[in-house]
Design brief:
By secondary structure, the protein is mainly β. Helix content is about 0%, strand content about 55%. A hairpin with a 4-residue loop joins strand 5 and strand 6.
Amino acid sequence: VVENNLNISSLTGKERQLNIYNSLGQEVQSFNLNGEKNITINTEAFTKGIYFIAILSQDGMPISKHTIIKE
């Protein structure tokens, strides 16, 4: 459950991009990670609902997927 900030840590630095999608599959936000190992995403502008996060490798392949609920 997320209120205003989403913290993602324990990234390896090999991830290239993080994409956030709403429940309709529309991309809401995208971040180039540039070797970051921790990232904080402000979610205040997101409406309440379910969101999906995809973390992509350097070659664009999904490394991990997560589901969050915005309250």
